[in-house]
Design goal:
- The complex is a heterodimer.
- Chain A is mostly helical.
- Chain A has a single domain, classed as Orthogonal Bundle (ABC transporter involved in vitamin B12 uptake, BtuC), CATH 1.10.3470.
- Chain A has helices at residues 2-14, 16-30, 38-56, 59-83, 88-106, 132-136, 141-159, 161-171, 173-178, 183-209, 221-231, 236-256, 261-266, 271-285, 295-301, and strands spanning 120-122, 138-140.
- A two-stranded antiparallel sheet of chain A has the order 1-2.
- Chain A is globular, with a radius of gyration of 20 Å.
- Chain B is mainly alpha-helical.
- Chain B has a single domain, classed as ABC transporter involved in vitamin B12 uptake, BtuC.
- Chain B contains 14 helices and no strands.
- Chain B has helices spanning 4-27, 32-44, 47-72, 80-96, 105-129, 135-155, 188-207, 209-219, 221-226, 231-258, 269-280, 284-308, 313-332, 334-346.
- The two termini of chain B are 30 Å apart.
- The chains are: A mainly alpha, B mainly alpha.
- The interface between A and B is large, with 40 and 44 residues.
């Protein structure tokens, strides 16, 4: 039982940045923008989060800076997308290349340094509950934020006017526009919220789960997050579940290292084939043959891909 | 035929992008002239350096050519990395088989590399056409699946005698290497293949119905139905061709550059080619020249560490800045205004 409990604690804290980033990417995609710069944004924010934490010796400063840097990058993407009407995928892709090289260049002087650590905060009373107390209420503040973010994001997207407007802009920009929703603004807000969460996730890597900075510190995590966002079917709860499953996978990979090298190398790549299968399954469900598939499985796997995902704004919206 | 106005606009854009790079380097406290000099010195100053540049140029130019096909069909073939990797796997498969000791090996390697790469491209295409999966996600997924396969092969069935490490397989038998001539190992066969493919592609894309239908698919899928041809078929075609050409790039990496299979066999050249094709779009000359420029940057960039003590990630920054500012300038259309100003000065 203790082993199980410890594994759960590790999974939840190790998945913190993944949860934050996946929810960010989900909100961004809900507004119709694939933030393909995720890989680069996380990397550069991990670097600057760590650097500012290191200089000021206050971890919070690092987190805040990364948060705003992520927002800044998202504003740039939004500008290219909305004002210049460039291909969002092209911009995101080039930014990923640019930012990852940039972070490797700037980060040379900060390799393997020790900066501020963040401590665990035991929540009084609640942390005394056997099992649950240790699993849920004995973490650092950023893990609490990540856990709270899940229902908040769901509430935001499903129950608030702003959230619903963002979703409608991502589904059918023209229809939303004719209903009086400012589609450009919604797309902007969605992208910026998403980007700032990606930035926060970057700092969470370098100041918490993967402490410090080294060359290519968060390599591939951005791509993995894009995959998990699809696995999550554009629903914050499922996205978080995907992130935690990947966290579990990582823990297993670490444990497998002592058994076989091959398994520990290949386990972290699993999200990608799973992503492809989910996408195929989503498509299959929409065909007629799918009536034989039990509804439970359908509702577990299928998500609502935003109609306008990855597309340019229609030219009618000036 | 030759679009002179377009050339003028492109030239002005080139000058502007170079200026932006110039100031970016100054911003980082680096002397642009020193960097430029080191890069040229490191890539072109001797025969052996030039050959090294050619060996980098080979996969990049092939991958860029491959991407022109998919871009023409309006597809974002981000799965190019995976196609290069699978091409290398196909080549290694032959190099490690009984055929590896015969001189015919490289030619059969090419066939298998095309087969493997083409198959990987086909998967992306089928996911797009039959499964309606956005090609970004399927491509990305297949890239990582391919890198999983290559890691598995290197530490599993194809591991070096005794040790399983991620350092790569055993070296290929000499007759499986890309055939070269002269004391500097000039890869004549590879260069001929590239020139041949570029020539053929130029004709196919511009003067055949296949090329025109590919472009039509890229411009407007709905309209293609009005003209009674299936755009799906052309999407599959484009991926099949792209995958096969990318496969040859993988062959060039495995049998030409490394002479073995390593986990990072693609060298990131697939993603780099995406940057190139973002600029050149469907222009075949342009990607030919640009891929050479980018390989000069890569090979010359490895000298920066030795000569100037600079990390070679600066090369990636230069490349990405180049592409990003090019794309933005293309949208702002500032060149026309400059052009008008210049011609205004002459015709007053």
């Amino acid at each position: 039982m203790i082993f199980f409990e410890n594994t759960l604690v590790t999974v939840i804290s190790l998945s913190t940045p993944l949860v934050i980033a996946v929810i960010g990417e989900t909100i961004s995609e809900k507004s119709g923008v694939i933030n393909l710069s995720a890989e680069g944004t996380i990397m550069i924010c991990a670097l600057f989060g760590f650097v500012f934490g290191y200089i000021t010796d206050i971890a919070i400063v690092g987190f805040l800076f990364a948060f705003f840097l992520g927002a800044g990058i998202a504003i740039f993407i939004s500008y290219c997308d909305i004002k210049l009407r460039m291909d969002q995928i092209a911009v995101g892709f080039v930014l990923t290349v640019f930012l990852s090289h940039l972070s490797n260049y700037i980060g040379q002087d900060y390799v393997r340094l020790n900066g501020p650590m963040i401590t665990k905060i035991q929540i009084p009373l609640l942390s005394k509950i056997p099992f649950l107390g240790n699993v849920l209420f004995n973490h650092s503040f950023i893990t609490y934020i990540s856990i709270l973010l899940i229902p908040t994001a769901w509430f935001f997207l499903n129950k608030t006017t702003l959230g619903l407007s963002i979703r409608s802009a991502g589904e059918n920009p023209l229809a939303a526009n004719s209903r009086g929703i400012d589609v450009k603004k919604m797309r902007f807000i969605g992208t910026v919220i998403g980007g700032s969460l990606l930035g926060l996730a970057g700092a969470t890597f370098s100041l918490y789960t993967k402490y410090g900075w080294s060359e290519g510190h968060t390599t591939n995590y951005g791509w993995i997050i894009l995959a998990i966002a699809i696995f999550g079917g554009w629903n914050p709860y499922r996205a978080a579940a995907g992130a935690y499953s990947f966290g579990l996978l990582q823990v297993l990979a670490i444990k497998a290292q002592s058994v076989t090298l091959a398994l520990s190398q290949i386990l972290p790549l699993l999200p990608f084939p799973i992503m492809i299968f989910v996408l195929i399954f989503i498509q299959y469900i929409n065909t007629k043959d799918a009536r034989y598939v039990p509804r439970v499985i359908v509702s577990l796997i299928v998500g609502n891909q935003p109609e306008a995902l990855g597309k340019k704004l229609p030219e009618e919206i000036k | 035929m030759f679009d002179f106005d377009n050339l003028k606009i492109n030239l002005i854009r080139l000058i502007l992008t170079l200026l932006i790079i110039f100031f970016t380097l100054i911003f980082f406290g680096i002397s642009p002239f020193e960097v430029f000099e080191s890069i040229i010195y490191g890539s072109l100053s001797s025969e052996s350096k030039f050959i090294r540049t050619l060996m980098v140029w080979a996969p990049i130019s092939l991958a860029s050519l491959a991407l022109i096909y998919t871009f023409s069909a309006g597809m974002w073939n981000i799965g190019i990395e995976g196609q290069i990797i699978m091409g290398a796997v196909g080549a290694t498969f032959i190099a490690r088989s009984f055929l590896g000791e015969y001189l015919i090996s490289p030619y059969i390697q090419i066939l298998f590399a095309m087969l493997f790469g083409g198959f990987w491209g086909l998967l992306s295409a089928l996911l797009k056409v039959k499964g309606n999966v956005h090609e970004i996600f399927s491509g990305l997924g297949l890239d990582f699946v391919a890198s999983g396969i290559i890691i598995f092969l290197i530490i599993g069935p194809w591991k070096r005698d005794g040790i399983a490490s991620t350092g790569g397989t055993d070296l290929f038998h000499k007759s499986s290497w890309v055939p070269t001539i002269g004391s500097y190992n000039f890869p004549l066969m590879l260069i001929l293949i590239i020139l041949f493919l570029y020539l053929i592609s130029y004709v196919v894309l511009n003067f055949t119905s296949l090329g025109i239908k590919l472009k039509a698919t890229g411009i407007n899928v709905l309209a293609t139905e009005r003209f009674y041809f299936k755009s799906d078929k052309y999407i599959i075609f484009s991926y099949l061709i792209a995958g096969s050409i990318a496969g040859i790039a993988g062959f060039s990496q495995a049998s030409g550059a490394y002479h073995k299979l390593v986990p990072s066999i693609s060298g990131g050249f697939g993603f780099l080619s995406i940057l190139i094709v973002l600029i050149s779009s469907k222009n075949i000359y342009f990607s030919f020249i640009l891929s050479f420029m980018f390989s000069i940057l890569i090979v010359g960039g490895s000298q920066l560490q030795i000569r100037l003590g600079l990390d070679n990630s600066i090369i990636g920054i230069i490349q990405a800045t180049f592409v990003l500012s090019w794309l933005i300038l293309q949208r702002i259309k500032i060149e026309n205004k400059i052009l008008q100003k210049i011609s205004g000065m002459f015709y007053k």
